[in-house]
């Protein structure tokens, strides 16, 4: 287990095999394992080989500590350092006053920055409205360089943002329902392009 030089926030439920994480991820996306591995190869291939996986219980305070995926094209516009509160605040601002982004095509994609960002804002707002649906899969896939974080959401960013809205902005008075997620930890995680160090 990596050395902990801080306070452990997440409640660890135990070690798990990466295959369990992948199976859960595939279920989240309603895909076969093969389709998931092919479609999510950029995310999966950048994970350090020595990553250890844990099942964790998420509390309300854990949500505040999460960082969204490190992705410059559009998530980075919502928050350059991945801060969840900044993402939520900026989403509300950009929903009312969309930024005027360059009409350049994003590297490796067919969408322009503007089109992709508009799609991201719209889909995040849809997730926000669906946050109370009982069949919503809340399982997040997190990555960190130590058990003490910081914790970046690798999979489930839309869900994490919608939960932040639900419990800290839209309905802060309601009781939080803890849920299970997965955490991948490696001291080499800063080499993963998706991780906010």
How does this model look, in words?
The protein is of the alpha/beta class and 197 residues long. It has one domain. It is built from 8 helices and 6 strands. A 6-stranded mixed β-sheet has the order 1-2-6-4-5-3. A hairpin with a 6-residue loop joins strand 4 and strand 5. Helix 1 packs across helix 2 (33-39), helix 6 crosses helix 8 and helix 7 crosses helix 8 (157-170). The longest helix has 18 residues, at 113-130. The two termini are 19 Å apart. The model is unreliable at 1-5 (pLDDT under 50).
Secondary-structure class: alpha/beta
Ends apart, CA distance between termini: 19 Å
Shape: globular
Could you give the order of the helices and strands?
Answer: EHHHEHEHHHEEHE
CA gyration radius, whole angstroms: 16 Å
| Strand order in the sheet with the most strands | 1-2-6-4-5-3
Indicate the proportion of strand residues: 15-25%
Beta-strand segment tally:
6
Count of alpha/pi helices:
8
Tell me roughly what share of residues is in helical segments: 25-40%
Number of domains as seen in the coordinates = 1
């Amino acid at each position: 287990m990596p050395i902990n030089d801080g306070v452990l926030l997440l409640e660890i439920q135990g070690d798990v095999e990466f295959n369990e994480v992948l199976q859960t991820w595939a279920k989240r996306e309603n895909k076969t394992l093969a389709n998931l591995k092919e479609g999510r190869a950029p995310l999966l291939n950048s994970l350090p080989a020595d990553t250890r996986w844990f099942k964790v219980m998420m509390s309300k305070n854990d949500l505040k500590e999460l960082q969204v995926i490190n992705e410059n094209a559009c998530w980075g516009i919502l928050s350059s350092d991945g801060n969840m509160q900044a993402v939520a605040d900026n989403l509300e601002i950009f929903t009312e006053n969309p930024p005027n982004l360059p009409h350049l095509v994003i590297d490796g994609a067919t969408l322009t920055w503007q089109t992709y960002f508009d799609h991201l804002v719209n889909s995040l707002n849809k997730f926000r409205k669906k946050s109370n649906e009982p069949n919503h899969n809340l399982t997040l896939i997190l990555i960190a360089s130590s058990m003490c974080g910081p914790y970046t959401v690798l999979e489930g960013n839309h869900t994490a943002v919608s939960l932040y809205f639900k419990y800290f902005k839209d309905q802060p008075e309601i009781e939080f329902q803890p849920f299970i997620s997965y955490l991948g930890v490696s001291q080499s995680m800063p080499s993963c392009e998706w991780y906010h160090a």
